[in-house]
């Protein structure tokens, strides 16, 4: 399953935006209002739970300075990655697109597609306010 958020403009430089996303603790600020749990597990991993959803653990898997931040689920039950692609607009502004990639059977994909789409849309919308 491949889902993409809209590109959002952020009033921070590409480097500032990258540094914000690279610090996984900042994802707490981006979570939807329906968050029931957010817990840091280490400097590069956290778990969260949204209302009516299972707990999901994410770990910082890969970064490319100022351009890419990739988080990966640490569960085999829901194997997916969440990629943040950061582009420079000018020296004071950047844009970000979130991309969700996961391997799910068709029944699971049908059940989670809308909630995941809503989730990444909310994360990207909340990025505007950082």
UniProtKB/TrEMBL annotation:
InterPro entries (UniProt xref) = START-like_dom_sf
Q: Which domain of life is it from?
A: Bacteria
Q: What is this protein called?
A: Orotate phosphoribosyltransferase
Q: Name the source organism.
A: Psychroflexus torquis (strain ATCC 700755 / CIP 106069 / ACAM 623)
